[in-house]
Design goal:
Chain lengths: 64, 230, 495
């Protein structure tokens, strides 16, 4: 009972503490600046935004 | 963004939290449950639940191996929640203590067939069970329960006449002339297991529901008359 | 480094790639994935066909119990778990891993690291599954739902899971793209959660079983998390990649996707015990899970908004892209199955539908409608790129799509209704049990028809893949075709 209780008490203190530390670390490293830019990661110079890929069905004009 | 460490910690903690909450805590609360000892009206000491006797335990393995759990549950929901008690599937709801000897515990999630928590009380007849397993259509026309012919042996009737445990079949299900259908050891074990399924002894945390003062005494008497060791 | 596109350089100043000073090209990465990814995918497809066959047998048995009844190894109680294990661990998990490996390489911008490790993992996986499925059919099933494979098979599988988790950490460490995309969060989380879940469940249920109903708690903590912390993140990770990629437009809101991830991670893993409503466990445990299930409204709504708003204005592309069709269908099914699941976890609703075929309909809307559809869509994108071959027959693509979509519809809608009616009848003690059974028959027969349609779709897909692979390995190597855009090939290697 007591070791279990201590473990849980320690755990419930440690978890938020670590979370806070991680959050501080992340803010300190500029992790929260312009998060929206990560949305561009699937794209690159070869396949930029604005260019659809995988357009293969129902297009009579395409030659192969 | 480079959330690397944050991500790893988050992945760790979220699962750890539910592991503590849904696995460790239940284990702490329920892992140490012991059988209940009480004295019934007749002054007899009743210990419930009790471990299954050998043949029934072997039958539990057959039940597991044949996957009966995919159609049959073994849990009685409380009064007022579903109609388990009205259907006669049990006299009271089941609680954790009913299952302390079950490995694996086969609560089930499907009721394609009826609940079997108390089948040992509802249907004590060995013969009924054997015919039903051989082909459910014999006892329950229209059932979707599969037949289990491989739990039986069809063999020529011996010189001394039919064996004692041959099934008494008639009509379309009868064995060909000169042959008889005899249960294998596995079939007998399975039936012993089914007959051992009884959970109507009251427990402090799950007394038998009181229907009214008059039949209260009667129902608790019948319950304690059926020792769980059978 | 080739000239970065305007958008990228504008939005990502100072984003200097590591390594040899140049980002690996997508085409190079794709080619490096060929062997390990194909290994997982092709074995996944083989298990899909076997699993479909077992499903049909089980389905027919439920309305014609005499069907194939004299063989012990084909009895319903063995075919059903064999079906579950082959489709869950054989098809869905392996294909999911294949797609995950590819996505991880692309998003981390590294050519496939240690392909040998991943290929050996795939060999172990298939070995474990073969032993496990044979064990179930032979009668060694544990009868613990979702963990039926016998104890002599599961350690083999675990070796494989662990190797894949190690692989993912190595790839993650070696990444040349420092920034993380939301898909990577989901995928990494899935790859790390799963071995943990699996090991815990094996130890607490099969190796050293805990007592009585604690087993049920562990069982459903595990089984629900397989859905929520394994398939769901892989499926969502793939959706988050493929919808923007195909339509060429970034995700609607990246903020929302972050919120979606963390709320899923927080709430989903507490859901499991809603499978035991009305059961013998103490009320608080089940209540906790019901609350967490309702909280799932947050991630589900967030994901729905994000996916469906990203698609807004691009629906015409559904007509042209098989990937988009399947993935968007999967995204819609995710929303639907989650809402249905939340309803299922409410006490009053569960009182009726728990123990009925309604649950099975829900399960298929999730694992099939959502996960399998997303995987089909992903494969339509991945396979041409790793093999450098076009899909050989577009007619088969249409057969696949329509057969599976109609089959899914025919499976889920009638069985949901039928299951609900079954539950109402069962809760009315004046209806004899055999009458309840009789009432389910028409719905179960419809399910067999649906299964046939799904099987047809699977055959069409497998035929198309086999045809494509025959070209890859056969003598007739066509020159690389412009990858699916119908335009000049963008794959120009150089700096
Ligand atoms: C997001 C919220 C979700 C909730 C709250 C939820 C809830 C539930 C509940 C309550 C059940 C048990 C029903 C019963 O036995 O009475 C269930 C079963 C099931 N669900 Fe979900 N669900 C959700 C999403 C999903 C998803 C996304 C998938 C697929 C990836 C899925 C697949 C399944 C399967 C396979 C079963 C059947 C388990 C079995 O009995 O073998 N669910 N779900």
């Amino acid at each position: 009972m007591t070791p279990m209780f201590l473990l849980m008490a320690a755990g419930s203190l440690a978890v938020p503490a670590v979370a806070l530390w991680a959050l501080r670390w992340a803010v300190g490293h500029g992790e929260f600046q312009m998060p929206e830019r990560a949305a561009l990661l699937p794209f690159d110079e070869a396949e930029p935004v604005g260019e659809a890929t995988d357009i293969i069905l129902n297009q009579r004009t395409s030659k192969r | 963004m480079n959330y690397g460490p944050l991500l790893f910690l988050g992945i760790l903690f979220t699962l750890a939290s539910s592991w503590v909450g849904l696995v460790l805590m239940p284990n702490r609360q329920l892992g140490g449950l012991t059988p209940d000892t009480s004295t019934n009206a007749a002054g007899v000491v009743v210990v419930y639940p009790q471990a299954r006797p050998g043949e029934a335990q072997q039958g539990a393995e057959i039940y597991r191996s044949l996957g009966c759990v995919y159609c049959h549950s073994q849990q009685v929901r409380p009064e007022g929640f579903g109609s388990d008690i009205e259907r006669g599937w049990g006299k009271r709801r089941t609680v954790s203590r009913d299952y302390i000897y079950d490995k694996p515990v086969m609560l089930g999630t499907s009721r394609t067939g009826p609940d079997l928590t108390n089948i040992g009380e509802r249907q004590p007849s060995v013969e009924w069970h054997l015919s039903h397993l051989y082909n459910p259509q014999i006892t329950s026309k229209g059932s979707v329960m599969p037949p289990y012919p491989f739990l039986f042996e069809v063999r020529p009737v011996g010189a001394r006449g039919p064996s004692a445990d041959a099934l008494k079949l008639s009509g379309e299900h009868a064995a060909p002339a000169g042959f008889e259908v005899v249960p294998t050891a596995a079939a007998k074990q399975l039936v012993a297991y089914l007959r051992s399924l009884k959970t109507s002894s009251p427990l402090p945390e799950a007394p038998l529901p009181r229907k009214g003062e008059s039949d209260d005494a009667k129902s608790s008497a019948t319950a304690t008359n059926t020792p769980a060791s059978k | 480094m080739s000239a970065p596109s305007k958008t990228l350089s504008a939005l990502m100043p100072g984003d200097v790639p590591a390594g040899d000073g140049r980002r690996a090209l997508l085409a190079e990465i794709d080619a490096s994935c060929r062997v390990p990814v194909l290994f997982f995918v092709v074995s996944g497809l083989a298990w899909l066909l076997l699993g479909t066959l077992l499903a049909l047998v089980a389905s027919i048995k439920l309305h014609h119990p005499g069907f194939l009844a004299s063989w012990e190894f084909l009895t319903f109680g063995r075919v059903r778990p064999a079906h579950l294990n082959t489709v869950i661990y054989g098809w869905a998990s392996q294909t999911g891993i294949g797609v995950t490996l590819w996505l991880m390489c692309r998003l981390c911008r590294v050519p496939f690291v240690a392909p040998g490790l991943a290929t050996v993992a795939a060999v172990f996986w298939n070995l474990g599954l073969t032993v496990g499925t044979a064990g179930i059919l032979a009668g060694d099933s544990t009868s613990i739902e979702w963990l039926e494979m016998p104890r002599y098979a599961t350690p083999i599988l675990f070796v494989s899971y662990a190797m894949i988790a190690v692989w993912s950490v190595i790839t993650f460490r070696l990444r040349t793209e420092r920034h993380l995309y939301v898909s990577q969060w989901y995928l990494l989380a899935a790859l790390l959660w799963f071995p943990w879940l699996y090991a815990t469940a094996q130890i607490m249920l099969v190796m050293e079983p805990v007592r009585g109903t604690v087993q049920a708690a562990v069982n459903w903590w595990f089984a629900h998390n397989v859905l929520g912390l394994w398939f769901t993140p892989i499926g969502l990770g793939a959706i988050y990649y493929f919808i923007p990629k195909v339509i060429g437009r970034p995700i609607h809101s990246y903020y929302l996707s972050v919120l979606g991830f963390w709320s899923l991670a927080l709430f989903y893993n507490w859901n499991g015990l809603h499978h035991l409503i009305g059961g013998p466990l103490p009320a608080w445990m089940i209540t906790v899970s019901i609350v967490a299930s309702v909280m799932m409204l947050v991630p589900v709504t967030v994901v729905a908004i994000n996916h469906h708003f990203t698609m807004w204005g691009h629906f015409s592309k559904l007509w042209h892209s098989p990937t988009l069709r399947f993935v968007v269908l999967g995204a819609v099914c995710y929303t639907l199955t989650s809402l249905q699941g939340i309803a299922n976890s409410l006490r009053s609703y569960s009182e009726v539908v728990h123990f009925t075929h309604h649950t099975i309909a829900h399960a298929h809307l999730g694992v099939y409608g959502f996960f399998t559809m997303v995987m089909f869509g992903s494969l339509y994108y991945v396979l041409p790129r790793i093999t450098c071959r076009e899909w050989p027959c577009l007619g088969l693509v249409s057969v696949h799509f329509w057969a599976c979509t109609l089959g899914l519809f025919l499976y889920v809608v009638p069985l949901s209704v039928g299951g609900f009616l079954q539950g109402l009848a069962m809760n009315d003690a004046s209806v004899p049990f055999l009458k309840v059974v009789e009432g389910t028959l028409p719905w179960l027969k419809l399910r067999t028809c649906a299964g046939l349609l799904l099987g047809l779709g699977h055959l069409a897909f497998v035929a198309n893949v086999a045809w494509m692979l025959a070209r890859v390995f056969g003598p007739y190597r066509k020159p690389v075709v412009a990858l699916l855009t119908g335009q000049e090939t963008p794959v120009v290697v150089g700096k």
